[in-house]
Every structure is written in C-alpha cells, then in structure tokens.
Amino acid sequence: MTQKKPSNSDRRRIAQEKIAAQRQAEARRQRNMTIAWVVGGVILIAGAGTAAWAGITDMNKQHVKAAASAQATDPSIDKSTSLLASTAHQSDGSTVDGVVGSNEMENLKYHIHAHLAIYVNGVQKLLPYGVGIIPPYSLDTSSGSPFVSGGSAYYYLHTHDETGIIHIESPNSHIYTLGNFFDVWKEPLSSTQVGPDKGQVTVYVNGKVFTGDPTTIQLSEYKNIQLDVGSNVPFKNFSWPSGY
After folding, report:
1. pTM of the model
2. How far apart are CA 213 and CA 232, in angstroms?
3. What is the pLDDT of residue 59?
C-alpha cells in the first residue's frame, strides 16, 4: 500500500513537536546543572577546606583526561555519516588557545549562541553533537535526534546536537572566534580548507560575503555563519527556535 505523504500542516506539527522536545531537553539540562552547582557548593562548604577541594579538583582533571583519551572508541560519540568530521580526536579538557577553558559543569555567566552551516561541493555536512564536551555522554533522544545532556567536562564552546548551534557558555564575557571553536574540535579552518575538506572556501556571515580570515569571525549572539567548500551555495538563513 502506498504511504500517504504528510501534508504541510503535518510537517509543521512535526517540526513544532521536535522544537518543543529540544526545548524540554535544554530545560532539563539547565535544571540538572543548577542542582549540580548547589550540591557542589554544599560539598565545598562541608569539606575540609581549600586543600581538600584542590585534591578533588585534581582528581576530576585526571578523570576528564582519562575520559578524553578513550573518546575515539567511546560508543556514545556521534558517528553519523553526514558529519564534516567526528569528535574522536578533539581537545582533551586542556585550555585551548589560552582562552577556551573547560569545567565539569557549564558556566552561564556569559551565555549566547551562534549557528554554523557547512557545505562541501553543495552537500551539507553536519556538526557532530558533543564538540567541546568530553564523553561519555548522556544522550536525550526524546526529540527524535540525539541531544547531549551530560558529559565528563564542557568547554566554553560546545555543541549539544547536530543542528549547527554553537553554545558559548563562559564564566566571563570574552569574545570567542570561529577559530577557537575549530581548535577545540581540533579541525583545520582556513580560506582553502574546512575540516578534512579542501577547496576554495566562500564565507557568509548573516547573509553577507566575508572575505577575511574565517578563523577571526567573532561568535556573537544569533550570528549565522555559512562555509561553502568548493562550489558556492547561496546563503541559507537559520531560523532560530524559540527558547534560544
């Protein structure tokens, strides 16, 4: 029997349901993070002082590095065939470029989002979930696609899903760049290469052609960045879901 194609209203309903599920996943993540901060504060107050806390922090750093060294084979990392590159060999929790640090929990003092779309010879390549997050991951699939709701550590720049949304969550309002993000990912970025793919790179920022060094593009609130490797794809604006 021929399957009936979904109507436009069905498509809108499905899209709305996915966005709602993503918002719920984000809300759960924020709640869990708040609880973790509170518990961490109680432990700190009840602990034996600064020396004990330093010892715990040291152990946590060792745990993060151990998790990062095993991430290439971790079953929770993104292995989709549509990715530009995986996170198998990304940074291990050490500070990147002298400015992008990591913590066991996310920092929300400075909290904005930017979007990155990548096309290689006209074919869209996805950002993996978990760029800048050290596995093993807790994955929420309630929206129909994986959303990283937990990990061993978080860089100030990271992705939770494959939508291309870059989360900038930092303890201060430092201006980070697209180059910083790619350095966390440990993937090359230049005017002739994006990740493993080489060719002339056309760059769009909020719909306008950008002719400078793509590593210098600043990540600001709701900035839409598009990188075309090889053939040029007209700029496609990203529609931000409510809740971001």
Report:
1. 0.77
2. 17
3. 45
